[in-house]
């Protein structure tokens, strides 16, 4: 297990650096506009290494896993002043553009030294879940930031050539999956390996019989709504959706435009002919809900989504886009925060849960019980949806 984890940490760092090189080619000064959905690339890179060092090498209670005291005193960071630069819990987002960050060479050197120290400590760690907990946490944290770097590149027009992170084509829709009334254990019960705190301790949810799509809605199904004037028809929009729509200049999805009788998609810094067999992506919750009302459908709850994914793994395709659900991001009964206190608890504000994964998600991050969560108006994320019968 330790050897596999060491390989994963090394591979994750290689992907981080490879994607950073794409930024370096496109942005020699690494300057990006100050927007809520962006972070300065040098800050992102330094934060990834800082998090790993803070949670592993500087953590005197790392062997305790979930039971570790998050406030246990840490030794000083390898780089003087790193906490004031990279601690996302204490460094306000907009201030990151004014920080005296180390240059790219120094940041890469820090990352190399931090990874070397983490791998050395991993060789000495206990092989149980507690002993490996913070190594797994640091790995998945880096994987999350890598995905964010990929969809930030989309927003910045930076080409990403690696075939692993390209959208895939979906088949034609076929008959929906039908599930009988049931009780479903939602979440990840204790004793099943690593899980994030918001997945614990699991709770039993009664489900009525439901019918759910076998895969995400494609552009082929979504664009007729756009062409029918759906973006300007108030019948299809919730009150919150109407407020979001009023703030948008274009009556169509982000990254799309009409070119004669065709649709083009902004990808890699250029407009390219859209293949309508791809999953509809970079949609807000509001757009997903509006399409569902127009089509006479609804979004699944997260319990319906999870039960279908786990019960029919060969028929229920997922992993093309993050999928909005109709469930708010809330703690399960008995929730207890893990040592990374800011991971879940600050975001239990009613924002929706997304399930699944996207084509930008590392394969090791893909788990049918994983709960993602973004504000309903985010459309920089590669998010789409599937639907259920009303």
Question: What does it look like?
Answer:
The chain is of the alpha+beta class. It folds into 2 domains: 2-165; 177-218 and 279-389, paralog of FGE (formylglycine-generating enzyme) (Alpha-Beta Complex). Helices cover 34% and strands 13% of the residues. The chain has 9 helices and 13 strands. It has helices spanning 2-26, 41-57, 82-86, 104-124, 129-156, 219-227, 239-246, 285-295, 302-311, and strands at 177-179, 182-186, 203-207, 210-212, 256-259, 262-267, 270-273, 297-298, 322-328, 352-356, 372-373, 383-384, 388-389. The strands form 5 sheets. It has a 4-stranded mixed β-sheet with strand order 11-10-9-12, covered by helices on one side. The chain has a 3-stranded antiparallel β-sheet with strand order 5-6-7, with no helix packed on it. A two-stranded antiparallel sheet has the order 1-4. Helix 1 (2-26) packs parallel to helix 5. The longest helix is centred in the middle third of the chain and has 28 residues, at 129-156. The termini are far apart.
Largest sheet: 4 strands, mixed
Low-pLDDT windows of residues: none
What is the H/E string?
HHHHHEEEEHHEEEHEHEEEEE
What percentage of the residues does DSSP assign to strands (E)?
5-15%
- What is the β-strand count? 13
First-last Cα distance: 45 Å
DSSP helical segment count? 9
In spatial order, strands of the major sheet run 11-10-9-12
Task: Give the SSE map.
Elements: H1 2-26, H2 41-57, H3 82-86, H4 104-124, H5 129-156, E1 177-179, E2 182-186, E3 203-207, E4 210-212, H6 219-227, H7 239-246, E5 256-259, E6 262-267, E7 270-273, H8 285-295, E8 297-298, H9 302-311, E9 322-328, E10 352-356, E11 372-373, E12 383-384, E13 388-389
Parallel strand pairs: 9-12
Antiparallel strand pairs: 1-4, 2-3, 5-6, 6-7, 8-13, 9-10, 10-11
